[in-house]
Amino acid sequence: MLKFRKNYPMSNVTTLQIGGSAEKFVAVKSEEELQEAIDYAKQNKMDYLLIGGGSNLLVNDHGIDCLVIKNEITGIQERNGTLIVKSGTLLQNIVDYSISHGLSGLQKLTGIPGTVGGAVYGNAGAYGQTISDYITSIVILNSAKDLKTLSKDQCGFNYRNSIFKQTKDHILEVTFQLENGDPKTLQQEADDVLSKRLVKYPKGIKCPGSFFKNIVAETLPKEILDKIPKEAIVYGKLSAGFLLESVGAKGQTLDGIYIADYHANLFVNQGSGTAKAFYDLAKTYAQKVKQKFGITLEPEVQLINLPPLT
Ligand SMILES: Cc1cc2nc3c(=O)[nH]c(=O)nc-3n(C[C@H](O)[C@H](O)[C@H](O)COP(=O)(O)OP(=O)(O)OC[C@H]3O[C@@H](n4cnc5c(N)ncnc54)[C@H](O)[C@@H]3O)c2cc1C
Q: pTM score, two decimals?
């Protein structure tokens, strides 16, 4: 029996710990429960939003007038290097599983919070590796309640993007074909990444990851690129942190939101921050970047019930 909660604070289910109440909230542990929750929303003429770990969300302080469905459908199956993973599985769990089973391709994603479904939605990545690198197919549930299997090519993956940002289809199951690797070497690679990550994201930090996307350097006109020092471009991306730092964002604060003094693309809730302060601070510095460089920064974080930033 599903437990629908009324006026559920989104601050309870986001890593930023900010956000007003969802009109209704339910956690689902199976595909049948997910279907039941969707039917409930339809019967009650409510919109609904499927979330995973809430690690990439900025939710309006006034909340959301809909049913929020938290995906807790988990499970990992493996056959000869093929991993079939339910979308509510924590990303860290498949990273750990792949390392201990000598499967290479996910180890650099260690430390990224959230679920496999959320990671696929935003094509999450770090240190030159992305979740989509070794995906072969994805099972989705679409708005017509059809289950479909999409090949990787049908998922429209590119930098921090997938077709699911447009279709809003629900990602149910993800299949990866990984390469063979030595567990000790893979663990060492993951440990190296994790020690770097812990400097940027100390344990318990209240944030949604990097706020803005980096910019794929080859999409920028030459006259803009000529003004950018080479070291600001890493893995082919111009760092949004560099641009924000150049307009003085580091260390700035507004009503409980703080921009890290060591990374200008990291906006942190100091405890009493609001979505409004977060949004206003981000908008101020995005506008300064636009004025100085002519570059429009695009949020990586999903804005829930907030107007587009730029
Ligand atoms: C400390 C910290 C460090 C981070 N580091 C990184 C990093 O290095 N690289 C990186 O890419 N990201 C990073 N992030 C951002 C975030 O962790 C990732 O984007 C993560 O993959 C989001 O997963 P989630 O389950 O939390 O998604 P949520 O935040 O719950 O949801 C994000 C979006 O995905 C949609 N969604 C979720 N599940 C599904 C599903 N099953 N089907 C369809 N749509 C779905 C939601 O509707 C929402 O629009 C970091 C975040 C934090 C807090």
A: 0.97
